[in-house]
Amino acid sequence: DAGVTQSPTHLIKTRGQHVTLRCSPISGHKSVSWYQQVLGQGPQFIFQYYEKEERGRGNFPDRFSARQFPNYSSELNVNALLLGDSALYLCASSPVSFTDTQYFGPGTRLTVL
Amino acid sequence: GENVEQHPSTLSVQEGDSAVIKCTYSDSASNYFPWYKQELGKRPQLIIDIRSNVGEKKDQRIAVTLNKTAKHFSLHITETQPEDSAVYFCAASNDEIYNQGGKLIFGQGTELSVKP
């Protein structure tokens, strides 16, 4: 039984560029959440999507956007990258929007130079 | 705003001893409290969770207690083993608000080291 998968594993970008990160939830899960984890800190909530609809948004600038596809996979987009965007980006899936048992993927390590 | 404070930031114990990590949350409407274990370079893994209608939950060597009045919850690990060494995160959320369901607020993490 496959868990949450994310791609790519690692990514190096320069300031000003944009990036797209991808996530596939556990089979049968309809909700995907995105978190940013800066080294040495706990994950910070960015977005939650359920049935292709945004259900929650954290305190992140409009440079961050996301979407969910009919197969429940999701993309996180970050425009105009800043050095401070360097972090581990985690995707988590849960069966429905209102249950909070979330299962995390391995993350995408983004480095902005 | 919503906040979760976690203590201590580092904890070192001898193998076989118990370890206790404590968290305090600010949003009194929080009703779900998971704990995650994150080994270096790996994903956070859910180890135990508790909902607000329960005061204590146990799973083998791991237990979580919740005091809603004081807005505290704690993780207890008994008979610690070297493989318990990792960073532990507490989190809190309120899944009854339509547009906030699933938003986990994490603590800052506790680095647990179990010495053989």
List the helices and strands and how they pair.
The complex is a heterodimer of chains A (113) and B (116).
Chain A: E1 5-7, E2 10-13, E3 19-24, E4 31-37, E5 44-50, E6 53-57, E7 64-68, E8 74-78, E9 87-94, E10 103-104, E11 108-112
Parallel strand pairs in A: 2-11
Antiparallel strand pairs in A: 1-3, 3-8, 4-5, 4-9, 5-6, 7-8, 9-10, 9-11
Chain B: E1 4-7, E2 10-14, E3 19-25, E4 32-38, E5 45-51, E6 56-59, E7 62-67, E8 72-77, E9 86-92, E10 105-106, E11 110-115
Query: What's the pLDDT, averaged over the residues of chain A?
Result: 92
So how many helices of chain A?
Answer: 0
| Unreliable sequence segments of chain B | none
Spans of at least 5 consecutive residues with low confidence of chain A: none
Helix proportion range of chain A: under 10%
- Tell me what portion of residues of chain B adopts beta-strand conformation: over 45%
Tell me about the largest β-sheet of chain B.
6 strands, mixed
Q: Helicity of chain B, in percent? A: under 10%
Q: Which geometry of chain B do the CA atoms define?
A: globular
Mean pLDDT of chain B: 92
User: How large is the radius of gyration of chain A?
Assistant: 13 Å
Q: Give the overall form of chain A.
A: globular
In percent terms, what proportion of residues of chain A is strand? over 45%
Our measurement of the CA-to-CA distance between the termini of chain B, rounded to an integer number of angstroms, reads 41 Å
Task: Specify which chain pair forms the largest interface.
Answer: A-B, 28 and 28 residues
Order of helices and strands of chain A: EEEEEEEEEEE
Oligomer: heterodimer
